[in-house]
Amino acid sequence: MVDSEEEFVPEEEEEMGPSVVKKLREKLQKAVEEKQEYLEGWQRARADFANFKKEEASMHVDREQRITANLTEAIIPTLDSFEMALGSASFKSADPQWQKGISALYQGLVGSLAQVGIKQFSPKGEVFDPHKHEALREVATEDAALEHTIETVERSGYSIGERIIRPAQVSVYAHTAA
Predict the structure, then answer these.
(1) How does pLDDT run across 81-108, given as a tens digit for each residue?
(2) DSSP assigned state of 99
(3) What distance lies between CA 151 and its chain's CA centroid?
(4) Buried b (16+ CB within 10 A) or exposed e, 100-129
(5) What DSSP string describes 62-95?
(6) pLDDT 10s digits, 20-47
(7) Is 3 part of a structural domain of the chain?
(8) What is the DSSP letter of 146?
(9) Sheet harboring 168-175: ordered strands across?
(10) Most distant CA atoms of the chain, gap in Å
(11) Is residue 40 part of a domain?
């Protein structure tokens, strides 16, 4: 068994002289250190590139959502006009075939937006959420269970993913003691 303090030196190295061996060992040590430095640098660069790719993909999705949201903001007034027309007395008294055609146009437009990820929401009966809803007025109620729930939707809201394009405009119940 070889003692761990003892170092094996081949005969050729003994003949070269201790100074040459020492220089070779120093060069070897330096080469090992450089190799480690290069390896760590390569690993950092690889991790940085992976992070860059993830960030770029995220930015691409965000950019797409912003473009879609901008287009939707331009279309929303038309959808609002459809909703007002569909709820009007003159629409309800119009020819049933005409009503059916106008309703189909409205549903087609909403369906087209849904295909690109735009969700329309009309939160009647839901609990009021200031991030998704804009309260236009409070409606008094004696029923405590209705406190902070949405009574009516004045204008629908629109979202893409978690991003709200336009909050729904609503009337909210407010509990009053009897």
Answers:
(1) 999 999 899 999 999 999 999 999 999 9
(2) H
(3) 30
(4) eeeeeebeeebeebeeeebebbbbeebebe
(5) HHHHHHHHHHHHHHHHHHHHHHHHHHSHHHHTS-
(6) 888 888 999 999 999 999 999 999 999 9
(7) no
(8) G
(9) 133-141, 168-175, 150-155
(10) 113
(11) yes
> Would residue 143 count as lying in a domain?
yes
Determine the angle formed by the axes of helices 18-87 and 96-115, rounding to 10 degrees.
Answer: 170
Give the model's pLDDT for residue 1. Answer: 44
Number of domains the chain contains: 1
Locus of tokens 């009007």: 88
CA distances for 155 relative to 7, 26, 171, angstroms: 85, 78, 10
Is beta strand 133-141 parallel, antiparallel or unpaired with respect to 168-175? Answer: parallel
- Write the DSSP assignment of 14-52 as a string of letters: HHH-HHHHHHHHHHHHHHHHHHHHHHHHHHHHHHHHHHH
Does a structural domain hold residue 81? yes
- Give this prediction's pTM: 0.64
For tokens 């005409």, the residue is 98
The whole domain housing 132 covers: 15-175
Strand 168-175 versus strand 163-166 pairing type: unpaired
| DSSP annotation of 127 | B
